[in-house]
Design a protein that fits this description.
The chain is mostly helical and 107 residues long. It has helices spanning 15-19, 26-29, 46-51, 55-68, 80-83, 88-97, 99-106, and strands at 33-35, 41-43.
Length: 107
């Protein structure tokens, strides 16, 4: 995936990449999952499972700490890595990667 230098964050992709037709068939959406007889799904993608490794324990430890402090379950924040595959450092670098472009124009 190539980043577009003319597209500042949060738009990291080119218009062509964004406008590409996405796969919308049931088979492509459920790729990496196995459908069970009872209607449930089991993830069979080893790489996807490895990316989510440790998240359950992180959420449980945060829940325990919040309950011991007298807080409710609504005070738990979900780990960012569930929703964002990149690290915080990668995201911060992306924000600052466009700084020279904007600072030159501002000067």
């Amino acid at each position: 995936m190539k980043y577009d230098k003319a597209a500042p964050p949060p738009k990291y992709l080119t218009n062509e990449e964004l406008l590409k037709e996405k796969h919308t068939t049931k088979e492509t959406i459920l790729n990496g999952f196995k459908k069970m007889k009872d209607g449930g799904l089991i993830c069979t993608d080893i790489q996807a499972m490895a990316k989510q490794n440790g998240i359950l324990m992180e959420v449980l430890s945060q829940l325990t700490i919040n309950l011991l402090q007298g807080l409710t379950i609504t005070h738990i924040s979900m780990p960012v890595r569930i929703f964002e595959p990149r690290t915080s450092l990668e995201r911060i670098c992306d924000l600052f990667s466009h700084a020279p472009l904007f600072l030159k124009k501002a000067a």
